[in-house]
Amino acid sequence: MSQKALTAIHASPPAHWVGDGFLVQALFASLAFGQEVSPFQKLDYDAPHQFKPSDKPPGVGPKPHRGFETVTIVNEGELEHRDSAGNAGKIGAGDVQWMTAGSGVLHEEFHSREHAARGGSASMAQLWVNLPARDKKVEPRYQTVLADTIPTVEIAGGKGTLRVVAGAYGTTQGPAKTFTPLSVWDVNLKAGAELDLAIAQGDNVLVALLSGDIRVGADKATGTGLLTFSQTGDNIVLQASADTKLLVLSGRPLAEPIAHYGPFVMNTEAEIREAIDDFRRGKMGELEELV
Question: What is the pLDDT of residues 250-279, one digit of tens each?
């Protein structure tokens, strides 16, 4: 085996609010929507934040999506969602919502009414996954991946756990269905852990450091940030020098052009203009305000 070379450690940019419910760090920063992170597009990390009790759930109101998927992983708190196709649901700590926007949908997400009334800590991560050109306009769908359906692999020596949300880790297959070959692993390591991960030759691999410390050879990342690696090679080795939380993302890059504008991700500017026009004409549906 030959290791993929660490190409950069990208510091986390300052946090910003999305709506009034999510104080996020855009971990991909200037790499977002680029070939270096394909087939992924962006990753917003909502670090633990204390909310006061409220009778008005914080969150973000209706917004359109087309041409990609959102993957929301809840670490703490509860999230309720609703869309213009009549879908609605709630996920809690350890659960994942995998939404395929496809041809277009209006979607909103708020802290659950129960969690808002109690107040307390909330923390989540939301990943955007690109769809290949052939699937940009598939019918929207949801995969509600509950925590008890996500297989957990113990790291050798009791040094941590790896949850397989999508893709495979060894012979362990994750429950989420994907349009292209990719893996999403939710990893918790204890201080002193070493993790040797097989990643296919030619695939991109991204390590999102959410908290703790991680070493790759002589290089060290601390706190929150993103580690990128070369496509050449077939494994990476991570060493934790403190208790550490990671998201490891890997996948076959899409060799297709990307055109994006706000919540629309397509292949051409003409398709972006079409998406904006369809949204304005109400072709992505409507969401009535809840009382």
Answer: 999 999 999 999 999 999 999 999 999 999
**Helix ranges, the chain (H):** 113-118, 269-280
- Closest by Cα among 38, 39, 42 to 13: 42
CA dihedral 30, 28, 36, 94 (to 10 degrees): -170
In the DSSP assignment, the letter for residue 132 is P
Distance CA 23, CA 122 (A): 10
Give the CA distances from residue 35 to residues 25, 103, 113, 130, 255, in Å, rounded to whole numbers and listed in that order. 21, 23, 39, 11, 8
- CA 157 centroid distance within chain: 28
Coil, strand or helix at 107: strand
Predicted confidence (pLDDT) per residue in 55-65, tens digit: 999 999 999 99
Beta strands 235-240; 213-216: pairing state: antiparallel
- Taking the C-alpha atoms of residue 165 and residue 119, their distance in angstroms, rounded to an integer, is 28
